[in-house]
Design a protein that fits this description.
Elements (H helix, E strand, L loop, with lengths): L1 H7 L7 H13 L15 H7 L10 H4 L3 E2 L13 E8 L9 E6 L2 H12 L4 E7 L35 E16 L2 E20 L3 E7 L5 E2 L2 H20 L4 H10 L5 H11 L5 H9 L3 H52 L6 H12 L7 H16 L5 H15 L12 H11 L4 H17 L6 E5 L6 H12 L3 E5 L7 H4 L12 H9 L5 E5 L12 H9 L7 E2 L6 E2 L5 E6 L7 H5 L2 E4 L5 H19 L7 E3 L1 H11 L6 H21 L4 E3 L4 H5 L17 E8 L2 E11 L15 E4 L4 H21 L5 H4 L2 E4 L13 H13 L7 E3 L2 E2 L5 E2 L4 H10 L4 E5 L3 H6 L2 H4 L3 E5 L2 H8 L3 H10 L17
Parallel strand pairs: 2-4, 9-14, 9-15, 10-11, 11-14, 16-17, 20-21, 22-25, 25-26
Antiparallel strand pairs: 1-8, 2-7, 3-6, 4-5, 5-6, 6-7, 12-13, 18-19, 19-21, 23-24
Helix pairs in contact: 2-7, 6-7, 6-8, 6-10, 8-10, 9-10, 11-13, 12-13, 14-15, 14-16, 21-22, 21-23, 25-27
The chain binds adenosine-5'-triphosphate.
Adenosine-5'-triphosphate binds next to α16, α21 and α23.
Main location: mitochondrion
Protein name: Lon protease homolog
GO molecular function: ATP binding; ATP hydrolysis activity; ATP-dependent peptidase activity; serine-type endopeptidase activity; single-stranded DNA binding
Length: 911
């Protein structure tokens, strides 16, 4: 057991003394001795007497003999007979004959009992394995300090162990030494022969048992016993070579093993099986047959050897892994050092710095920016690349150096080229293109087009964004587009302060990075939908960037050095201009795109939308032919909005369907005409009946402006009956309005009623209609909110038509604000309204006199085919709208020129 203690210890020298003792003991007393049969001590006094005798120092003649293997005997002083012995329970492993083992006794009563026994000359004790042994070290009390046999942590034999919990076969131990320890006594026992417990003698502080010696069977040393013995020795040698840590000690033991004594060999082998469990060892202890005992011992030793091998393999693998990683690390470090020495690789900071500096080579960095870059470079050199500050500085430098300082693209200011490019991308828009040409012509004279903010306003899908891109292409400038719709965070424009984690510069600096020129064209979409949130006012930030007075030193929060944006061309787009903050609007040059009339839509579809969609669907011009009639029907019956986006979608839809049919049915060509439309894109979404092919009395047609473009709007009035005659509005106001009209429009209706009464009185005093009438006025498309004063004269006309019972001509539409005295005031959105009238196929429009300039500014192709009358008072309107009794009827009969484009089907939103 000392050996085991040595085996488990990392510091075998601690046990040098024990080993010495072991060696001495094994040499002197047991292991090398051929044990003779005991003469048998008759009494304890015999045993005491025997203690003074010198044990034989030489092996017996039997041990030398190969013929017979003798069972182990004991030295004469050990009584080989029935005895009453104090019992020491062993909580980890059984002890075997020939073993010296220290045992720690902690229980004070037990200690006293052992002291008393020693004083009484009683040196023997029975050492029996407790049945709980091997069920966990904690339970067994763990390693007893200074001893290899574990005892319960709470001390030995407290209240004496339960005899039923002990194995019956154990060994008799002879006390060699008793030494005080801080926590009790350390008893060192020399184990002799096997004993068997036969009964309980008495229980005091210790348990005393009746014991009898176990007689070992005498056997012939057969070949198999020899073979087993040799195998055990061989395995022990292998163990020796495998476990180098205890080499010396094992060698010592092996030298002392009497290989010719199989009993001895089996016991020793079992002792050395340090990983074997207590039950297996107890089995060997109890095994009466020598050959079996040897075989079991061999088994335990083999498994011990295997365990050691596996253990070594595992540790070798771990060592290999660790050393590989270490080796790699060292080699990498060496490589880095060598590369650095050879000048092949600079320090990370140096390589970053040189990369960043290389970016500045072709640039003209302004002084202020250059000094900041310098400072930051120095800072970078002093920072640890692993620190977070290093990354912040590096990112900052990254942005500072990526700005295209002083890099400008050459503008192509050739007017003809500009026009050619614009024409190539967009059909029509003549006035817009002219305005752009003018703008570029000025740029040509000045040598630059800087400092201008163009605003393209108009309904959705009229090509504002695409024309912006075309301008960039025409000028040969890089284009960067971003939308500010709903943008409420000022940081999106001005950047974040660098102190924030993940800080970024704003959109303008990002634009410069992407464009890589300091004079790109920046397209700011949806400027009318700019948000305003708690994170500041983006419109003020935009102003700083766009304003030619300030933007030569635009200060982004992140970059923190002034950047010149004055050479940048800004183009903004908006659907309405009213919601653009006025300081911004002031600085812009508005070009309005009013929306397209039918012919334009058809031409755009033919020249641009169809080829684009065909290409996107992988079709050739031969495979898909869309007839003009189909395009016309599409624009007229399916897509009535001002722009061409939904027309574009419908054409794309047609292309997809045709592509599927061509692939599915292997058709060479498909021709789409107006008849095939329902099959391809479904039924037209607009009602096919003409709402007012013939205008009834009380209905007048107005023109409205909406964010989606112009629209035709109706005002309908009816007399609901006299007061008290069961009419719906009995006792209520004389005019009731519906149709989601806003407060301004409501006021217009009141003005209209008051004026119409006065007007009628003057024109036809006999007509007392308004005195008795209770009128319901409705503006259709009741779900769409409408507001504004421009329907004033239409409302008066509607009321007078009702009062006079004379219909208004059905080819006539009007717009104009009414005053109470009958003057017609100018209104906005003339262009959109005229386009809407034209789209609806109307022939005549009445516009306020003061809007004559707006009319004159309209391109010819819009004005063409429209008869316009300018009116300054309602008398003028009356003259035209109620010219003759038959006018309405005759006009009504003729209807709009294009019956299919009946205006009743126009969408109406805000008047
Ligand atoms: N005159 C035109 N000629 C050729 N294509 C046009 C014309 N007008 C519009 N388009 C096409 O219509 C589509 C929609 O245009 P775009 O996106 O520029 O509209 P938008 O006015 O910017 O709309 P929104 O206000 O919704 O942003 C584009 O594919 C564009 O090419």
């Amino acid at each position: 057991m000392i050996l085991q203690r040595v085996l488990r210890s990392a510091r075998p020298e601690r046990y040098a003394g024990s080993l010495e003792r072991l060696t001495r003991l094994t040499q002197r007393r047991q292991w090398t001795l051929p044990l003779r049969q005991s003469r048998g001590f008759s009494s304890e006094s015999d045993a005491a007497a025997a203690e003074n005798k010198e044990p034989p120092s030489q092996p017996s003649e039997h041990s030398a003999s190969d013929a017979v293997a003798q069972p182990p005997s004991i030295v004469q002083r050990v009584p080989f007979r029935e005895l009453v012995l104090p019992c020491i329970p062993l909580y980890r492993r059984p002890l075997f004959p020939g073993i010296v083992a220290p045992i720690l006794v902690q229980d004070s009563a037990a200690c006293e009992a052992f002291l008393a026994m020693k004083d009484g000359g009683n040196r023997f004790a029975g050492l029996f394995l407790h049945k709980s042994a091997g069920q966990g070290r904690q339970q067994g009390g763990g390693e007893a300090p200074g001893g290899i046999t574990a005892l319960p942590a709470d001390g030995l034999l407290r209240g004496a162990p339960d005899p039923d919990q002990l194995f019956k076969v154990g060994v008799i131990g002879e006390l060699l030494r008793m030494a005080p320890r801080p926590k009790g006594l350390e008893l060192t026992y020399m184990c002799h022969h096997r004993i068997r417990a036969t009964g309980v003698a008495r229980r005091e502080a210790l348990l005393f048992l009746h014991t009898e010696p176990v007689q070992e069977e005498k056997v012939e040393q057969t070949t198999s016993i020899r073979a087993y013995s040799l195998a055990v020795v061989e395995t022990l040698r292998e163990l020796l070579s495998a476990g180098s840590l205890y080499k010396e000690q094992l060698e010592l033991l092996l030298e002392s093993v009497d290989v010719n004594n199989p009993y001895h060999l089996a016991d020793l082998g079992a002792c050395l099986a340090s990983t074997a469990d207590a039950a297996a060892l107890q089995e060997i202890l109890e095994e009466p047959r020598l050959e079996e005992r040897l075989s079991k011992t061999l088994g335990l030793l083999k498994s011990e050897l295997e365990t050691i091998r596996v253990q070594r393999k595992i540790s070798r693998q771990i060592e290999e892994n660790v050393s590989n990683a270490q080796r790699k690390f060292f080699l990498n470090e060496q490589l880095k050092y060598i590369r650095k020495e050879l000048g092949l690789e600079k320090d990370e900071r140096e390589s970053v710095k040189s990369k960043l500096l290389a970016r500045l080579e072709q640039k003209q960095v302004p002084k202020q920016a250059a000094s900041v870059i310098d400072e930051e470079m120095q800072k970078l050199s002093a920072l640890d690349p692993a620190s977070s500050e290093y990354n912040v500085t590096r990112n900052y430098l990254d942005w500072l150096t990526i700005i295209p300082w002083g890099v400008y693209s050459q503008d192509n200011l050739d007017i003809q080229n500009v026009r050619a490019v614009l024409d190539e991308d967009h059909y029509g828009m003549d006035d817009v293109k002219k305005r752009i040409q003018e703008f570029i012509a000025i740029g040509k004279l000045k040598g630059t087009v800087e400092g201008k903010i163009l605003l393209l306003s108009g309904p959705p899908g009229v090509g504002k964004t695409t024309i912006g891109k075309s301008i960039a292409r025409a000028l040969g400038r890089k284009c960067y587009r971003f939308s500010v719709g709903g943008m409420s965070d000022v940081a999106e424009i001005k950047g974040h302060r660098r102190t924030y984690v993940g800080a970024m510069p704003g959109k303008f600096i990002q634009a410069l990075k992407v464009a890589q020129t300091q004079n790109p064209l920046i397209l700011i979409d949806e400027i009318d939908k700019l948000g305003r949130g708690w994170q500041g006012d983006p419109s003020s930030a935009l102003l700083e960037a766009l304003d030619p007075e300030q933007n030569n030193a635009f200060l982004d929060h992140y970059l923190d050095v002034p950047v010149d944006l004055s050479k940048t061309l800004f183009i903004c787009t908006a659907n309405v201009i009213d919601s653009i903050p006025s300081p911004l609007l002031d600085r812009m040059e508005n070009i309005s795109l009013p929306g397209y009339i039918l012919e334009e839509k058809v031409a755009i579809a033919r020249r641009h939308l169809v080829p684009q969609a065909r290409k996107a669907a992988g079709l050739t011009a031969r495979q898909l032919v869309i007839r003009e009639g189909a395009l016309r029907a599409l624009a007229r019956d399916y897509c009535r909005e001002a722009g061409v986006r939904s027309l574009q979608k419908q054409i794309e839809r047609i292309c997809r369907k045709v592509a599927l049919q061509i692939v599915n049915q292997d058709i060479g060509q498909m021709v789409v005409n107006s008849e095939s439309l329902p099959e391809l894109v479904g039924k037209p979404p607009y009602a096919s009946e003409l709402a007012y092919r013939r205008m009834p009395s009380g209905v007048a047609r107005g023109l409205a402006w909406t964010p989606l473009g112009g629209a035709v709007l109706y005002v309908e009035s009816i007399d609901t009956g006299h007061q008290g005659s069961g009419g719906a509005f009995t006792g209520g106001p004389r005019l009731h309005t519906t149709g989601q009209i806003g407060s301004v429009m409501k006021e217009s209706s009141d003005i209209a009623l008051s004026f119409a009464r006065r007007f009628l009185q003057a024109k036809d005093p006999a007509n007392r209609f308004f005195e008795r009438a209770y009128i319901h006025m409705h503006v259709p498309e009741g779900a769409t909110p409408k507001d504004g004063p421009s329907a004033g004269c239409t409302m008066v006309t509607s009321l007078l038509s009702l009062a006079l019972n004379r219909p208004v001509p059905s080819d006539l539409a009007m717009t104009g604000e009414m005053t109470l005295t009958g003057r017609i005031l100018p209104v906005g959105g003339i262009r959109e309204k005229v386009v809407a009238a034209k789209r609806a196929g109307l022939k005549r429009v009445l516009l306020p006199q003061q809007n004559i300039r707006d009319w004159e500014e309209l391109p010819d192709y819009i004005r063409r085919g429209l008869e316009v009358s300018f009116v300054s008072s309602y008398d003028d309107v009356y003259r035209i709208a109620f010219a003759s009794a038959g006018a309405g009827a005759s006009a009504g009969a003729s209807g709009p020129a294009d019956a299919n484009a009946d205006d009743a089907r126009e969408t109406t939103a805000v008047a």
